[in-house]
């Protein structure tokens, strides 16, 4: 969490003088104190701010503090905001229990003690800082995981491209070697065919040239046979996930 960012808290009371008095007690450079004069106004403000804490007066005209708290707990956005009830009613257990049933996490009794108020508020502010820090860390971790997945995808794509390039390279090597093997017997074959064409009246020469043609043909057939006998299952490792045909055979 950015340490320079102010934390938003909401104080709610239908008496304006009470709000200013509470604001004066809580005023701090790291706090952004928002005031509301009614439960309805408070609920409206909760959709505009990320409140770390709400200090809510119990006895208000219109919508009382208990009713405001109950509505907050039913809304997904506001249900987890801590509520401290501020009240002038007596400290009987039934009143306190009612407040906890409505969603309070603590009580402040009037007249307010500045030291107690600050102490309790600071506890919830620290919890908010820790929660926000954890949320930001989680978001950064999520982004890091997303970036790693994207990087891994790119690496796999690059590996596939390298594999394809390697396969093409192997095919080109095979084609070059085949051309080299076939070139000499083909030249002999073609040369002797030309000699036959100009020596048709010389049976002895024809026999010699035909023998050369047969020899060249056998060499070509042997080369083709070797290509056909290449074992596709005889491979060599290319990277951690793939193999290619080993043409050294």
Number of helices: 6
| Beta-strand content | 5-15%
Biggest pleated sheet: 5 strands, parallel
CATH class of the largest domain: Alpha Beta
Domain count? 2
Radius of gyration: 44 Å
Mean pLDDT: 81
Total beta strand runs: 7
What is the CATH topology descriptor of the largest domain?
A: Rossmann fold
Task: Name the strands of the widest sheet in spatial order.
Answer: 2-1-3-4-5
Q: Low-confidence stretches at least 5 residues in length (pLDDT < 50)? A: none
- C-alpha geometry: rod-shaped
What are the key terms here?
249 residues; Rossmann fold; Helix Hairpins; 5-stranded parallel beta sheet; two-stranded antiparallel ribbon; 6 helices
Helix and strand layout, with pairings?
Elements: E1 7-12, H1 16-26, E2 31-36, H2 39-45, E3 53-57, H3 65-74, E4 83-87, H4 93-101, E5 106-109, H5 114-198, H6 203-228, E6 235-239, E7 242-245
Parallel strand pairs: 1-2, 1-3, 3-4, 4-5
Antiparallel strand pairs: 6-7
Helix pairs in contact: 2-3, 5-6
């Amino acid at each position: 969490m950015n340490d320079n960012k102010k934390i938003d808290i909401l104080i709610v009371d239908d008496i304006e003088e009470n709000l200013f008095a509470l604001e004066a007690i809580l005023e701090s450079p790291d706090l952004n104190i928002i005031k509301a004069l009614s439960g309805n106004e408070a609920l409206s403000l909760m959709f505009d701010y990320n409140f770390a804490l709400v200090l809510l007066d119990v006895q208000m005209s219109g919508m009382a503090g208990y009713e405001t708290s109950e509505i907050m707990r039913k809304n997904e956005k506001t249900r987890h905001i801590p509520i401290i009830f501020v009240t002038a009613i007596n400290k009987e257990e039934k009143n306190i229990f009612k407040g906890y049933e409505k969603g309070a996490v603590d009580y402040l009794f009037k007249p307010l003690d500045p030291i107690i108020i600050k102490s309790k508020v600071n506890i919830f502010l620290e919890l908010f800082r820790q929660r926000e820090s954890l949320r930001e860390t989680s978001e950064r971790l999520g982004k890091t995981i997303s970036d790693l997945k994207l990087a891994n995808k790119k690496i796999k794509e690059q590996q596939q491209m390298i594999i394809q390039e390697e396969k093409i390279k192997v095919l080109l090597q095979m084609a070059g070697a085949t051309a080299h093997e076939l070139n000499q017997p083909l030249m002999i074959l073609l040369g002797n065919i030309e000699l036959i064409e100009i020596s048709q009246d010389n049976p002895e020469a024809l026999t010699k040239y035909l023998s050369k043609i047969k020899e060249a043909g056998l060499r070509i057939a042997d080369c083709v046979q070797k290509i056909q006998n290449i074992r596709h299952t005889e491979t060599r490792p290319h990277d951690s996930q793939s193999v290619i045909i080993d043409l050294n055979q």
